[in-house]
Amino acid sequence: MSEQLALLPGYLTAHLQLTLLALLLGTAFSVPAGVMVTRMKWLDQPVLGTASVIQTIPSLALLAIMVPALAALGVQSIGFLPAFIGLTLYSVLPILRNTVTGLAGVDPALVEAARGVGMTPMQRLRLVELPLAMPVILAGIRTSTVLTVGVATLSTPVGAPSLGNYIFSGLQTRNLTAVLVGCVAAAVLAQVLDGLVRGLGAAISRRRRGWAAVVLTTIGLLYGYTGVSLVQDLGARDAGRIVIGAKTFTEQYILSEILAGQIAETTGAAAEVASSLGSTVAFDALRAEEIDVYVDYSGTIWATIMQRESVPSRDAVLGEVTRFLREEHGIAVAGALGFENAYALAMRRQQADELGVQGIGDLTAYARRLVIGGDYEFFGRPEWAAIRDTYGLSFASERTMDPSLMYQAVASEQVDVISAFSTDGRIAAFDLVVLDDERGAIPPYDALILAGPRLVRERPDVVAALRQMIGTIDVDRMRRMNLAVDQDGTSPAAVAGSFLEELRAARRAQ
Amino acid sequence: MIGPGVRARGIRVSSIGASAPRYRRRFATLRIGCHGRATLIETVGLTKRYGEVAAVDDLSLRVDEGELLVLLGGSGSGKTTTLKMVNRLIEPSAGRIAIDGQDTATIEAHDLRRRIGYVFQRIGLFPHMTIAENVAVTVTLLGWDPARVRRRVDELLELVELDPAIMRDRTPSELSGGQQQRVGVARALAASPRVMLLDEPFGALDPLTRDRLQQSFLRIRRQLHLTAIFVTHDMVEALLIGDRIAVLHEGRLVQIGTPRELLRSPADDYVRQLMDTPTRQARLVEALLEERPA
Ligand SMILES: Nc1ncnc2c1ncn2[C@@H]1O[C@H](COP(=O)(O)OP(=O)(O)OP(=O)(O)O)[C@@H](O)[C@H]1O
Ligand SMILES: [Mg+2]
Prior knowledge:
The structure holds 2 protein chains of 2 kinds.
Chain A: H1 2-39, H2 44-56, H3 59-73, H4 80-104, H5 108-116, H6 121-151, H7 164-172, H8 176-205, H9 209-238, E1 242-247, H10 250-267, E2 271-277, H11 279-287, E3 293-297, H12 298-305, H13 314-329, E4 332-340, E5 343-348, H14 349-355, E6 371-374, H15 382-391, E7 397-400, H16 403-411, E8 417-421, H17 426-429, E9 432-434, E10 446-451, H18 453-458, H19 460-467, H20 475-486, H21 492-509
Parallel strand pairs in A: 1-2, 6-7, 6-8
Antiparallel strand pairs in A: 3-10, 4-10, 5-8, 5-9
Helix pairs in contact in A: 1-4, 1-6, 1-8, 1-9, 2-4, 3-4, 4-6, 5-6, 6-8, 7-8, 8-9, 10-19, 10-21, 12-13
Chain B: E1 6-8, E2 11-13, E3 39-50, E4 53-64, E5 68-73, H1 79-86, E6 94-99, E7 102-103, H2 109-114, E8 116-119, H3 131-141, H4 146-159, H5 164-167, H6 177-189, E9 195-199, H7 207-224, E10 227-232, H8 235-241, E11 244-249, E12 252-257, H9 259-264, H10 269-291
Helix pairs in contact in B: 3-4, 3-6, 4-6
Bound molecules: adenosine-5'-triphosphate and magnesium ion.
């Protein structure tokens, strides 16, 4: 618990940066746009229609879409910017709609009175229409506030830290305390911000100057704090800080902590972890120099990034991947950690024995009666196509689920086969068997430490520190570490800490 | 169809019938009326059409400086439309309006409106502003300094017989209808306009309150030497308050003249019936008293 709470200031600040600035920009756009719409009726359909369409895009997808969209524009595509833009877009509709409704609801007799006493159109808007529409507009801002605080938890996969880090990593590592802290913190934050806007509305409508001043000052201070922290964060980016990326699964959390610890210990450089990045987000982030290091798997690069379908030998894949990364993207493969984390089909040992299944080939006859579960990516990945085609598999149904739930699902007989990861400790823990890929449909998945172009250019010392990790983790070790987190609820940082300690002790002993 | 032209103070309605020649469409700069006063408001051939229907049809009027002209007519006769065209809340379809000899179309609409006091049919106080802010709205727009505005507000509230100390910081919803209408009058008077336009200002009030407000208004009018167009559909109010009365019917001017002239020689049956209502009602009340002596 206290370990989780220690992370709170950082995540909360990041969450505030995203939501407050998105709301500010969203409001600054929506209110004038709403005014325009009421002035120029023909704008009504295009503007409100567009905003509605944006609102119907699932929020996670909207944020994720920002990544390639920004990359295409050649600007920062990972981290604050995509999350910020996505959230801003998301905050628009409620404010826009309420501005339009609020202005339309102003008694026409009062609008005419405003003209009658000699107001210009602008004065009429400022002195009569906006103040009268204010309660409705503020209600829109409140809706947006609650919405934005919630959706901001989904910024984590696009590389912007937020309270969502608690939720994503907590769900992945079965740390319910973390999930709870994240949810409660987000809920409280939403309530507090909503309360501030509500308080402001009440103070204005009851004409309490004092109240209004207090609320405005509070809001102002929040913005001040947020702005200053954002500027500091941006400043810190340049100060030689090393950022280690991690995708959204346990092994990645552990490895990123290990690498961060190793870099900090060996070089003294400040190293921090940007966790829960979407799978291809991590690669894009490295290429765009928004993170400096992360661990990826040779087969993933081979199949997903290089789009290769043939499966040559392990060494050939490694060689070609290394050359490809260096030549195409300026990324260095610092080395292989010493284990493979392959996609593998796994099933309950008992069922495998009953059916007499040992290799994937033995499944072909039974597949029609069996249900397969896979993580979010699996059924869309080239590896699945390769397995399916090579062995002529056709399952009764394919179910996509969260990777943290797959093992439970197969163990409790809700599915029969899963797309397991070969390093996952739960394979042994749930008494599953991994089926042999006897025809070599699945490429090799050596865990590789990838160093970004900036490190290659400027920090040979860091690259050297990374090289020291070559061959230090074998499959068995990785499985145990994964199991410690997934099963025993130890934090990835703690697991990484004891690993590094052991490694140091072993080195001293040599 | 309609009787001969009626000669009245400073204005000659040469003919009103549709077939009669149109009133000369020319502005006379400051024509002197028979009481030796200058014309302040003049409308020439003023027309407002909504599609096929003419809400106001070829209306030519003059109002002298210091005069109170009542626009009298039934619902939908075009009274409000006429009044709103004078301060350009509605743009005419045809015809022109001059104030003090100047064509209003040549003045910025908001400038024009700041120079004309307008009391709305539906009061139209701003609910989000205090009474003081409502009264001060025009002079604030004119850029008066706050101290001067505050003095003016108190002065005006006293003029309309409201206690500034009590009323200043209230909001319109905390006032009775009669009090709100007084504030409406004070707001219209704030920038010392030479011209006041009042659209059934006391229409929605009980008879006693209406009577009190009428008296207040007459006093204020004399005190400030206001020129006003006052819309009403209440015959008694028209007779009591107007220097002259212009009777509108279906957007057309039926007759214009002093109350006495209208009572003595109504131009047609419509005006006669209209003029008869107060006496007829008085007779009914008298008869009632005779039937049941106290
Ligand atoms: N915006 C508009 N569109 C169409 N017709 C209108 C519009 N405004 C007014 N009219 C019509 O013009 C005519 C005159 O309306 P106006 O408001 O001037 O009447 P009024 O004499 O003030 O009536 P009342 O005593 O009921 O206030 C009415 O028949 C009305 O229906
Ligand atoms: Mg009217």
